[in-house]
Amino acid sequence: MSRSKITRAPGALFEPVRVGDIDLANRIVMSPMTRSRAGDGLAPTAMNAEYYAQRASAGLIITEATQISAQAQGYIDTPGLYTDAQIAGWKAVTDAVHARGGKIVAQIWHTGRISHTSFHNGNPPVAPSPIRANAKVFVAGEGFTDTSVPRALEPSEIAQIVDDFRQTCRNAIDAGFDGVELHGAHGYLLDAFLRDGSNQRTDMYGGSIENRARLMLEVTEACAAEIGGGRLGIRLSPVSPANDSHDSNPQPLFEHVVERINPLGLAFIDIVEGATGGPRDIAPFDYDALRDRFDGAWMVNNGYDRDMAIDVITSCGADLVAFGRPFIANPDLVRRLKENLPLAEADPVTTYGKGAAGYVDYPALDAAE
Ligand code: 8OZ
User: Fold this and answer.
1) Pocket of ligand 1 (CB under 6 A)
2) Is the entire prediction scored with pTM above 0.85?
């Protein structure tokens, strides 16, 4: 039977499930969300720990995107996971989430060309090819700013990036994380290598689908070997135009990627359906063709509400549903969805940037409400 035809009882959204090597209390995932509130040295702070702990009733928390190296940064005040201080900061986060009974994985990224010279001592960011993305990043003192023209990575530099991803997975386990999600979406480095809109290389990392997928697969293999596939997931966004991401023929490209990832035994694939934060039907794409090629848990996201989430878990083949923005103003989102209680609206002004306002001051509903 096609895996996309699996059916489940109503209520399954709120029931426990084992995903790879990780036991979850329910099928609701907190999506990774950049909030740009890391502390000194891009290390997580006690306030970051409080924010994640408040949301620990999610079956799984996926952290905001977190750098694998200094070279990987593209936005102001996004955290890293490559220094001792960053690992210690994350340890306080994972301890706080675990103390509340939650599970948490680190989303790790290299932003690639979605970056700016100000993060690299005035030097260009790195990418598959020297093509500027028509996209913006936020930069100290200037707010949203055009990305810089990148330089193409030398073939000799690529092994270091694979190793940075592998080492960051090890650091994540040392920091107490239950696992890692690789950010393979939204035009960042791994996605930029995949696509012919951003990858015009003529070496073994460019040209054919096999070559363009090579970096993502090398990284996924190295990370699965380091921490075990059962603690690893990957986010993909096959047709999202986020950050000027585009490809002439995404269907066979992503079928190849999922076919090659499947034998690594990953815990989950996290699929952004349609345009990130926008229309779900932006381009035709057969997601079931990907789902049928993968034996792990299938996580869907992008604009799901309560009814859509229940429907996709009970009758449309997904195993997990990720919610992003609703988690900002509703730390107790799982309870509100389960009991069909009203949702609070987040203030968009405080999405990114310093301070507790709009971050740790959204209350949970009182127990009696
Ligand atoms: C919004 C602002 C900054 C970064 C992504 C990590 O698109 C992001 C991001 C989103 O995945």
Assistant:
1) 34, 65, 75, 186, 242
2) yes
